[in-house]
Amino acid sequence: MLSNIINSKSIRNEILDFIVNILIDVNEKIVLNYFNKLTPKDIDIKSSTDDFVSVADKKSEDYITKKLSNFLDNTKIIGEETAFLDKENFLSLLNEPLLWVIDPIDGTKNYINGNENFCSMISLVKHSFPIASFIYKPLQRQFIYAFKDIGAFIFDIETKISTKLNLKVDPLNQIIGSGGTKGIPEVFRKSILSNLRSFTKRVFVGSAGIETMMLVTNKIQFVFHGRVTPWDHSPLDLIIKEAGGCVYMARFKEEFNIKSKGPILAATNSNIWDEVREIAIPQSNLYRKRLI
């Protein structure tokens, strides 16, 4: 049955090959063809003045959706751009026992501005929890993936060899991380942002997928986001955990699922997770209380 699909190594390999080909093809045929070539009429605003969607996002999501709909007899698919257009259908799909979740261009603002920090992501979700996730950074042809309880891997596009990822636990003079606080109520957001700025070194990336790649390749030690989405955080959650990292919802230390709400924190290990959480949202902070 599909619900047990990743238990079979041969089918895991079939899934990997299929997703690798989809993500390479969609980037070669659509995403990279529009990169640095978008005009103002190719770009729209979604929920706010800094939330963009381009014609490349829409076309690439449509391409991926059509390819996935014929694969493994699983036709239930959530895409970031179609979810924005049809909220009712999006909410109903969250209850499906098995579905694909797509982010055709993660880091759209970077993509529009000619910044290389963008990627394409696909996840397979079972009963709200990710069981397989794939991220492809096309300009560098970097591909990482994970299967639940199997591990996280770097996949070499040329040699077709997978190398298992293992996070290092090197001691650091200063904790380095990425992310933001958007989505947290303003009454708490300012203090959380101030705490992170004061006691950690933060780098701006602008893409959850790229941040995930950076964490599992030991370039940063944490990612903190003020809100979650199925398409951004299914890959972040699964790949970082399968690489040996620690990921929980930041307020109450609950496991992420695609219905989760609120801030999320991912870290190289549980010690760094606890330390960053205490920095960002100290135990005395009312935001840690369930009454809020």
Count of helical regions:
9
Main beta sheet = 7 strands, mixed
Distance, first to last CA? 41 Å
- Give the helix level as a range of percent: 25-40%
Order of helices and strands: HEEHEHHEHEEEEEEHEHEHEEH
Structural class: alpha+beta
Q: Evaluate the radius of gyration.
A: 18 Å
Describe the protein's architecture and organization:
- The chain has 292 residues and is of the alpha+beta class.
- The protein is 36% helix and 23% strand.
- The protein has helices at residues 9-34, 55-68, 80-85, 87-93, 108-112, 186-199, 208-216, 230-242, 270-280, and strands spanning 43-45, 52-54, 77-79, 98-106, 119-126, 129-137, 142-147, 151-155, 162-164, 176-179, 201-202, 222-225, 246-249, 264-267.
- The chain has a seven-stranded mixed β-sheet, sandwiched between helices.
- The longest helix has 26 residues, at 9-34.
- It is globular, with a radius of gyration of 18 Å.
